[in-house]
Amino acid sequence: EEIKPSVVFVDPPRKGCDKVFLETIVEMNINKVVYISCDPATLARDLKYLAPYYNIVSVTPFDMFPQTYHVESVVCLERS
Fold this sequence. Notes:
The protein is an alpha+beta fold. The chain has helices spanning 19-27, 40-50, and strands at 7-10, 32-37, 54-62, 72-79. 25% of the residues lie in helices and 34% in strands. A four-stranded mixed β-sheet has the order 1-2-4-3, with helices on one face. Helix 1 links the parallel strand 1 and strand 2. The longest helix is centred in the middle third of the chain and has 11 residues, at 40-50. The radius of gyration is 13 Å and the shape is elongated. The N and C termini lie far apart (26 Å).
């Protein structure tokens, strides 16, 4: 029996997700993606790849390291 997740949580390192992984998410036709990121630049790059397939529902920044420039972001996406 094939298992098809309805939600996937992604928390990549600073380098972001690799293209093959993003392609897999799209090919699996997953309904929701929760993307947790510690690097706004790679988050933007990966969201640009996912944009034709997913709508951004919410973006929430978290200042977990006060008095530094680091910020964590949680982005919720839903399949278009």
